[in-house]
Amino acid sequence: MFALVDCNNFYCSCERVFDPKLDGRPVIVLSNNDGCAIARSEEAKQVGIVMGTPEYMIRDLIKEHNVAVFSSNYTLYGDMSDRVMKLLASFVPRLELYSIDEAFLDMSELAYENLLELGMRIRTTVTQSTGIPVTVGIAPTKVLAKMANRFAKKKRKDIGVHWLGNDYLIREALEATDVGDIWGVGHQYSTMLVRNGFKTAADLVNAPEDFVREKMSVVGHRLIKELKGIPAIEWEFEPKKKKNICTSRSFGSLTQSKDVMIEAVSNYAALCAGKLRKEKSCARELIVFVKTNQFRTQDKQYEHAIRMQMEVATNNTVELIKYALKGLDIVFKDGYNYQKCGVIVNDLVPETEIQFGMFDQVDRKKNNTVMHALDKVNQAFGKDIVRFAVQRFDKRYRLNARFLSKKYTTDINEVLHVKI
Which architecture does CATH list for 9-76? Predict the structure, then answer.
């Protein structure tokens, strides 16, 4: 048996933990640059706020229904997620992180546990310890666990836990789930299946194997096995290493300043370098891109990218910044209102498998020692507390975040104050 634990309206729930006055009030969280609604409380859904709607288009709804609006606070959400996941890991031998607010729990070794009671205990413990409400779905496979979780949200809201412990309960969940709501079935597959008479998961279970192989390939074959209660999707107890890393943001306001672009590109390259070192990888290729806002028809439009091969694969911040600024010099043109730029590192290899150049004169052992020391200092005293001068400290390109809440759990100067 496996479980899928999902935090309910996670970003909104994080905001509510530190402001109880938000309970019962519609809450939304906006995307980067205060763009679109990317998280909605149940109350916000009920007043008609649709996922992905730009904030400026729903200002009347926000005012009419007294909707609480927040900018994305990923520092807070990441820390709260870490707390939830550590609690979940204490209940089972193995756990797979699926996203910032979801995890699969391996219960196959808990033969003598009452799994329904365990699900209830997990839900109660997480809610009491973190303030984040969760829903638990338990089933023989990952796909069925995802389905049980969804069934609990729709049909068992008061309990928040659903266990597909027998054939009757599995059949009930299959019949209640449209094919488009099955985990792994996208829009194209959903349209094709409905067109061929498969409307629910119960219909799909009985689909001929030849049809599934022809129309949905091996992915569909695994899906059918999972729906029948036969585990067919591998577990990823260790996150897969990335094939590339991209760091990019839209600017808080349009800019024509190359100095601002230099600052942004330098910081993006440094972020890529830090992520590479964390994964113990090095990059052999770096891409720098810039672009204007295509929706501003009154502006001249420009978009360009440059791809550069590095002499030796590296995760050294100094080298990546050097290459990134060289790329910016090539793609930058005066006279354009730039909206965005970014850095991508590609062709990643393990840092233990680097092919050195015959004429490479860089003291890489010394540089690695410096980078290791820099990472330790920043980890101990705060993110980017030590940085290179070209990165600056003022972040003139920073995103709009007019509704940003405090970093209650990670900044001693912003901890919650309680008045008695």
Answer: 3-Layer(aba) Sandwich (3.40)
